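[User] Once you have settled down, look closely at the record that follows, and write a paragraph about the fold.
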Amino acid sequence: MWKDFSSSADLLLAPRTLIYGFNGSGKTTLSRVFSSIERESLEERLPSETTFKIELSDGSTITHDPISNPFGRNLLVFNTDFVSRNFKWDAGSTKAIAYLSEKKIDARREFDEVAEKLEHAKQKAKTKKDEKEKADKALKDFKTRVARNIREVASSSTYTQSYDARKIEGHYSKASFGKENILSEEDLKKYQVVLAQREPLPTLSFSPSLPTGLIDWFKDGLALLTQSVSGIALKEFEAHTDALRWVEEGLHFHDEHSVSDCLLCGNPFSEERRAQLRDLFDKSWTEALRALEDAVKHGQEHQQALRELYRTIPKEAEVTADERKAFSQNRALFETAIKQLGVCVGELLKGLEVRAANPIKEIVVTGELADFDLEEWLAEYGTIEAALNATVKKHNDASTNFAAMQKEAFEKIEAHVLATNQSDWNHLQKDVQEAEAALEVARDDEKNLSDRQLQLRNELQDHGVGADKMNELIWAYLGHKELRLVANDAGGYRILRPSGKPATELSEGERTAVSFCYFLTQLEAEGRKLNDLVLVIDDPISSLDTAARTHAYSLMTRMTKKCAQVIVLTHNTSFMNMVKREFQNLQKRNPENKVTALLSLDCRNSGNGEERVTSLIPMHKLLEKYDSEYHYLFSLVMDAAEKQSTDYLFLLPNATRKLLERLCQRNGACRGGGRRVASGDGQAIPVQVLQDQPRDHPLGGDAVRSLPAFAAQRRGPAS
C-alpha cells in the first residue's frame, strides 16, 4: 500500500510520535521498515522490491541498499515479527535476554570504560567516514566537471555523446598530462574547427598553373609591340614610313590603269619594280597585319583565362584548418602576382591593339610594362605555385582521411583539458587516499573495541537477571503470578505455570503481556542506556483484552519516559487516546520545542478500485481534538454519502459499522424496533431508528439512505 510516498518537509517524527491508522492501513509495513534497519537486512515479510529512504536529524540518510543501522543496539522495534522471532508459544519458551552481572567488578568496570571508548570510536569512525565521503564526492564532482568541460570544449557528437566521468578516471590512472599537452589558443581553435565539421570538406581541383601559352604570347607580343618598321617594310622605306600607304595606293592605281611610267617622276615603271612592290604589300605587309591581329585575339583570350585563374582560387574556409594559415599567406602572394601580371598583360594588349590599327606607328613601352621583369616574376611565381600545390595536396589528403583527422583533433583537445586539471586531480586523489587511510584506522580501532566489548559482554552475561526483571513486569501487568520465566541451560527462558509445567496454552492477553514485557526488559539489557534508545512500538495491546490496555499504557509510559525517541503505532482508539493525551500534556510542558507529533495513516482508494495507497499525514483535527472516534467517523461517512466519494472505499464498511456502534451506545438505539442490518459481530442493529431521527441529526433520514449501497448491505465480520 505504500507506493511512491514522500513526506513533506514539515512532517517530522518527533521525540514522541503517535501514528494512528485503521487495520490494514500499513502500520505493520512501516514498523517492518524500522525493523529492517534494526537488523540491517530487509525483513523477510517485506516484498523484495521494497525501497525506502529515511533522513536522520543529523542530515544523514538510511536507504534500502545497503541497509545500515547507525543506532547500533540502541534501536529496538516491537511488532508481530519481533514476537514471532523470540517466542515459541507451543513449546512455552523464548530467547534469553542478557543482563550484565554486577558481581564481576573489574570486568564490569572495564566494560563501562570500553563502552565509553567505543562510543567515541564510533563517532570518530563516523567523522572519518563523512570526510571520506566528502573527499569521494569532491573527486566525483571533479571528474564530472572535467568530463563536462571536455564535452563543451570538444563539441562533437561522435566523440562526446557518451563521454562521462568514468573516462576521466581511466585517463588519469593510466598517464600524467603535462605542459606539453596544453594547446595554444590558436591550436585549440583549429582543432575545434575540425571537430565542428559534420563531414569532410570537399577536395580541391584548383591548380595555380598559368594559362597554357600565356608566357609565350607575352614574349611574342612584347616583340611585336617593339618591332621596328624595317621588320615589316623594305629597307628603302625605313626612312619614309609615312609613304608606305601612299606607295601602296600608287601601285594599285598604276596597275589598275595600265600606266607604264611613274606619274610622280616620269621614269619608266618597270615590271621588275612593280613585282617587288607587289611582293612587299602582298606578303610582308599582310603577314605583319595578321600577326598583330592574332596577337590581339590571343591576348584577349589569355587575359580572360588569367581572370578566371584569379577567381578560382579557394576561400580560406574551404581549406582544412591545419593548412589555413599557410594558405592565407600564399593566397595573398598569389593574388598580388596575378594582379601584377594582369596589369602588364593589359598594357601589352592595349599596345598591340594600337599597333594593329596602325602598323607603321612606333609604340613606346611605358608604365609597369616597361619595368616588368618577366623572368624574375616567373621565378617568384614558381615558389608561390609550389606552395599552393602542396597546400591543395595536404587538404585533399586530409579530406580523404577525415575520420583519423577528427580523432586526432579530439585527442589533442582531451589531453589539453586533462593537462589543465592535472594538479587538481593530484590534490583530490591525495585527499581521498588520506581520508581512506584515516577511515581504515578508525574502523580498526572501532572493531578492536567492539570485539573487546563483546568478549566482556559474554563474560558478564547473566540470563537469570533478565528473567527476574521480566517476571516482575509480567506480574505487574497481569496482576497475578500465574506465569513465571525461568532461564534454561540452552540460553533461553521457559514459560512455566505454578505447577512447574510449560505454559503452552496462553491466552491472547497473556501472550501480549509476556511479549511486551519481554521487549521492555531489553531496554536496559546488554549495557544499554535509556537516554540513548530509539523505540518503535507497534500495537502493544490485545484488541480482545480491554482491561489490559491501561496496564500496557502505564507500563510503556513508565519504562520509556527517559528514552531519546519513542514512536507508537496503533489501530486501537482507546489506546491511541491514552497515548495522545500523554503526548499532548508533554507538549504543553515544553511549549518552546516540538517534542511530539500526532500523525495518522491515510489509506485511500487509488482510483481504479483495486489498489489502496497509504500516506503518512498529520492526524485529523477531529481525532486530535476529541477522544471519541464518533466525530471523525461521522465526517468520513457523511462525505461518502453527500459526495459519493470513493476515496475511502476500503475503510467505509468498517467505519460505518463503528459509527453505528458508537451511536447505539450513546442513544440506546439498540432497544428500538424497525429494520436491522448486520454489525461486524453478526448482531442486528436497527436502522429504522436512524431514519426516524430529525434531518439535522448527524445520521438522520437522508444521510443513511444516501450512503453507498455496499455500506448498509455488508454481512459478516468487518475488516
About this structure: Confidence is low (pLDDT under 50) at residues 669-719. Residues 337 and 381 are 7 Å apart (CA to CA).
